[in-house]
Write a structure and sequence with these properties.
This protein is of the alpha/beta class. The chain has 2 domains: about 5-260, Spore Coat Polysaccharide Biosynthesis Protein SpsA, Chain A (Alpha-Beta Complex), CATH 3.90.550.10; about 280-360, Hexapeptide repeat proteins (UDP N-Acetylglucosamine Acyltransferase, domain 1, 3 Solenoid). Helix content is about 20%, strand content about 25%. It has a 7-stranded mixed β-sheet, sandwiched between helices. It has a 5-stranded parallel β-sheet with strand order 14-17-20-23-26, with no helix packed on it. A 5-stranded parallel β-sheet has the order 15-18-21-24-27, with no helix packed on it. The longest helix has 13 residues, at about 195-205.
Length: about 375
């Protein structure tokens, strides 16, 4: 049986979520009430029987390391394989590599020692629920050198403009990788490649002075190698801006969208906090809201997402907002179209109102 080893490459991901990434990398941003962005990638891998996963980090990874710990939540705290968090290490005076190829070069031992026959390289910004064993089957059937995973979106959103797009022929072969903003074939920053071929690509990319494994070493070979396209047809969200974070978070208030992402047969795992159930006081009025554990609600909450440990005072009103962990909204405060990071406090009677297209964002530990 062919095995897959995983690499979550955060080296080239930009932190574009403004206040939400002041103190953390994008992969550690909370999402969907009790999860982090990276939870979806890790869960997809472990549900696909990938037992060895490396995380390439570059900056602001303290919060990420605190969340991941030893990988116990994803059953990755094991003697063989498991979770490897690999910050940058540039102590080799003979190293001529740069960009994310430098990260691959400095952690080449992980690739060599991995028991996987194939390597899956992903980012963290594409939220989905995918079985990578299906991707492996398609890769082997097509006899491809590299298989890229894409999503055909019905409507191109602003966040898709920053993503790479694919041109595909009738045999599902990739003929071009580009940034045509009108194209709806969105590359999901995920590809599968045989380990031996990945080692060749890394060596060749460094020899040519490339800085980005995919954009230069792989993209340049589209016309000379067999690059296969695998279409993912499930629920999908690309989160690379505050606006896309806000819209895709609130889309989970649709029960159908929520159930498609959080499937019983392929659950999403996260760090367990062992908090008490949420408490709804008699004065509370909660409608169409996703509420995590440990909340105490005495006010009105509508069309919103409350993370763990949020306290809503009597007479407070929250509409169309995302309130992160341990925030306190004091009595008679009003919030509408707001994203509030962890440990913030809104004083009694304070009013914060943003726009649906441009929510008001409050950075971590702010008091207003």
């Amino acid at each position: 049986m062919d095995r897959i080893a995983g690499i979550i490459n955060l080296d080239h991901e930009q932190d574009l979520l403004e206040e939400l990434t002041y103190f953390r990398c994008g992969a550690a941003v909370p999402f969907a009430g009790r999860y982090r962005m990276i939870d979806f990638t890790l869960s997809n891998m472990t549900n696909s029987r990938i037992e060895s996963i490396a995380v390439f980090t570059r900056s602001k990874y303290r919060s990420l390391m605190d969340h991941l710990e030893q990988g116990k939540a994803w059953d990755l705290d094991r003697k063989r394989g498991g979770l490897f968090i690999l910050p940058p290490d540039w102590n080799d005076p003979t190293d001529i590599s740069r960009g994310d190829l430098q990260h691959f070069h400095n952690n080449i031992d992980y690739v060599h020692r991995s028991y996987g026959d194939y390597m899956l390289i992903t980012g963290s910004q594409h939220i989905c629920n995918i079985d990578y064993q299906d991707v492996l089957a398609a890769h082997k059937q097509s006899d491809a050198d590299v298989t890229l995973i894409y999503k055909r979106v019905e409507m191109v959103q602003p966040e898709h403009q920053l993503a790479s797009k694919l041109s595909i022929d009738e045999h599902n072969r990739v003929t071009d990788i580009h940034n045509n903003q009108k194209s709806n074939y969105v590359y999901m920053d995920m590809y599968l490649v045989k380990k031996s071929y990945l080692l060749e690509l890394i060596e060749e990319g460094i020899a040519h002075g490339y800085a980005h494994l995919f954009n230069e070493a792989i993209k340049a070979k589209v016309n000379t190698t067999h690059v296969h396209a695998y279409e993912y047809t499930g629920v999908h969200a690309l989160v690379n801006s505050v606006e896309s974070y806000f819209r895709n978070s609130r889309s989970l208030l649709n029960p159908q969208e929520h159930d498609l992402l959080f499937k019983q047969e392929s659950p999403v795992y996260t760090k367990v906090m062992n908090e008490a159930p949420s408490k709804y006081l008699q004065s509370s009025n909660v409608h169409n809201t996703l509420v995590a554990n440990g909340c105490v609600i005495a006010g009105d909450v509508e069309d919103s997402i409350l993370f763990r440990g949020v306290h809503v005072g009597k007479g407070a009103v929250i509409k169309n907002s995302v309130i992160l962990q341990n925030c306190v909204i004091e009595p008679n405060a009003v919030l509408e179209n707001v994203i509030m990071d962890k440990d913030c406090t809104i004083s009694e009677g304070r009013m914060l109102i943003g726009a649906t297209e441009k929510p008001f964002v409050l950075a971590k530990r702010k008091v207003m």
